[in-house]
Write a structure and sequence with these properties.
Blueprint: E1 22-24, E2 40-50, E3 53-63, E4 77-82, E5 97-99, E6 102-108, E7 124-129, E8 139-141, E9 151-153, E10 160-163, E11 167-168, E12 180-182, E13 188-191, E14 197-198, E15 205-211, E16 214-221, E17 232-238, H1 252-255, H2 259-262, H3 266-269, E18 276-280, H4 287-304, E19 307-317, H5 320-330, E20 337-341, H6 348-357, E21 361-366, H7 374-390, H8 395-401, E22 402-407, H9 421-425, H10 428-435
Parallel strand pairs: 1-13, 2-14, 17-18, 17-19, 19-20, 20-21, 21-22
Antiparallel strand pairs: 2-3, 3-7, 4-5, 4-10, 6-7, 8-9, 10-13, 11-12, 15-16, 16-18
Helix pairs in contact: 4-5, 5-6, 6-7
Length: about 450
Amino acid sequence: MRLGVRVVAVASTLALATSGLAYDSHGGGGGGGGGSDQGIRSVTPITTVYTYGQKVSAVAVEYGDAVNPRELDNSTFAVQDTLYNFRFNPIEDLPKLTDRTVTRTYVNSAAATRADRRSVPGRYVIVELDPEQNAGWTVIVSKCPTFLCTVKVNPDLPTRVVQRKNVYGQPRFGAGKGPVLAKATPQTSRKVTEKAVNQLVDEFRYGSYLSGGMVLPYHYHLPKNYDPAKRYPLMVVLPGHGMGWDGDNLLVQVAADIPATAWLQPKWTGSTEDVIVVAPQNQRVGGPAEADLLVKMLDQFVKEFAVDKRRVYATTVSYGSQLLWNAFAKRPDLFAGGLVTGGFAVNAEQAAAIAAAEIPLWVTHGVHDHLLNVSLARNTRTLLTNAYTARGKTPEQIGTLLHYTEYEDATFSLPDYHLAAGPTYEDSSVLRWLLSQAKPQA
């Protein structure tokens, strides 16, 4: 079954959307500069993962020589991108393009954005785009083996770029406009020519675990200055059903929404602490079997990397909760805490195991979740509360072990009321709470 992914039909062949513009199939041709409109050498999309997933956040336009930044402004380029969002649209909407809002234009020495957004000498013009605009999403439907579908990152992004004004090189003596590197071609829409630069996502490494004839692919991220002599908290990210491995969608569990990359960014966690992140991508064969493979993989991972065994956490989206409940019940000694967003209900046996191990949990759910009714989260709260009560815990003690939040529609920045990870992760206090949990010293 697929949860967290809107059921959509597989599209027929996609038509090219040019919105009345001439289409340059060679992305500018890669010719030389010096007054030729063939001066664009390449167009590279740059992506960022936001709350509801990865989108094109900038494009890098390369020229044959250093660009004069003083002759650039936000109207030099126009960018178009898809309106399609796998959470809301049928795949037929993928070729429907809309104008993106350009927020900054500057020069860089590489196809990458700069934190200070200031020009430096280079051949690349960086065109940054409005992150709040509901356009440019990269995740698309992958396969629909049943009425439920999986998703993947689109390998052929439909992003288009138009150079509306002349682009000039650096003037020889530091004055004037400089030579024309590429003439304005306002009627020519250029497609991307290079593989996307996926910020943070590209930093994840691939791994796989094989047991009993089943493979579990996963991606993991180590701190920039990883030191094997140190010990780091480990965040295990368990994605929704549609992000499970389908043979053709590696890394989508990192790109589809925010939970994997948030732990790498202080602006999300409110902490500068380094965290190891591992994002397994189980094939969808059922919670118990997937959890068995997951626990075995984690045991190996913890031995291989510098993990603080007192601080192994799990966070889930939708279907990932089934993995968490089964894994917690199977190996409660492994985990120091959990964050369950928009998930299934725990059962009584699992609740008893969690209560016996006193694993701190925070459960969140959308009040109007259209895929998993909020009653499931309420049942989880009831069963865990009963399990703790049966063990003699007071309401105050239970309150330190079990946190529960329901989100009204207004708290969702996009109207996917199933993705409770949205408002959850936008509240850094929840993430800080999870990172503050630790098992007692042995």
